[in-house]
Amino acid sequence: MLLNFRVANHRSIRDELEWQLHPVYDGDRPTGTFWQAVPVAGIFGSNAAGKSNVVDALRYMATMVIRSPLLAEDGEGMRRQPFLLDTVAPSESSWYVADLLLRGVRYSYGFEVDDENVLSEWLYSYPTGRKRVVFERDGEDFRVGSSEREAKALTTVAEVTAPNALFLSMAARSRASVTSLARVYRWFREELVFRGPASERRLGHPHVLMRNLASRMNRLGEPAHLRDLLRAADLGIEDFRVETVEEDPFENRRPRIKGQPVVDVKAAGAMVDTPRSVRPVRHELWLRHTGRNGSFELPLTAESLGTKAIVEYALALEQVTSRGGTLVVDELDSSLHPRLSAFLVGLFQDPERNPHGAQLLFTSHDVSLLGRKAGEDILKRDQIWFASKNEFGETSLYPLSDFRPRQDENRERRYLSGSYGAVPVIDDTFALAIAGRGGAGGEAAETGRQEDTEA
């Protein structure tokens, strides 16, 4: 569970920006829960306000945790994207901090980088409410865990950590037996899941979805949330089934020998069948539709991009809800109908369907999520954030709670009227100029037609 995220000097984020996910209003908590972070948080704002850059900063942090040793080996530096709209920021450092709650223990992990190296890095745990240093790093100087066993394991890792690699990544790859370190790394690698326009481009390749489905089924079994999403989407899909197909490694293999006809090696008995115990399998998803003449099935490969997107969301849902992870979606409204987006939000708000307190964090232009469904707020007051950009191109982030909203106020209408800011200021000058040119052109064309008629 993500409690707090802070970042500075990343793309349009110039100064420190904080996404604080602690609950503000006890009365808005989902009934029967005592979660220390909100289960849902959405960022709203005008185009190019920097909403996606907040998500991108968190994605960058996760990518560096998972891949920094590989990037260091390739000599790619830190691959950061600092603020570029002044002469100072590109030469200043960028930093990223995430506060997490994992198995009842709070952790704070962060790092500071420039274009070439890791300048500082740290991991603190709070098992009894008091800060405990797991490790601290200042350039190439390290201070490691308090226990003798942890100190010995981490000191060995510190000696081989490159200046442009994260110590957390190196320790995890070395499998240093430090529980707190392993938990934080695992959260970034397995429990933090991203969806959005970048990942949607992969939906044209069904084998990616099937690979994800196979991986998910091997770990967790049948994706139960898929049925809920398909029904909520009202696609006319009654149900689904997953077929496990045993692959024959020699099927359709016909080696060509120069100067000789094609030979079916398997049929000729030139190869011995692979034992069934080691034969690979693949999973095929079939969706049952309601047709005019009854039910019929289609494979996932024959479905629309929209249906594939829902399958992808279902797989991500299973991954995070099964262990209390965090699903981060950039542009939630880009691939889901508003009713389906509201359904997804409601799923995370429901402790029965979300027993481990998984989180949904997203950006969106869909202001209907600020309204109500069946008389209940879709998003609570402490789950709404706004992004805006000042005249210097710098993004800021602020919560609805700063305005001390009443529980019963119409937040959708107030946002659209500009009461909370973070809405575009429309300048009609360009549109009027176009209309004026169009009018002049229209008059000229009409004059030409009249002249032709007279001729």
UniProtKB/TrEMBL annotation:
Protein name: ATP/GTP-binding protein
InterPro entries named in the record: ATPase_AAA_core, P-loop_NTPase
One Pfam family per UniProt: AAA_21
Matching Gene3D superfamilies: P-loop containing nucleotide triphosphate hydrolases (3.40.50.300)
Domain of life of the organism encoding this protein: Bacteria
Occurrences of domain ATPase AAA-type core (ranges): 41-370
Protein's organism: Streptomyces heliomycini
Residues that span the membrane, as ranges: none
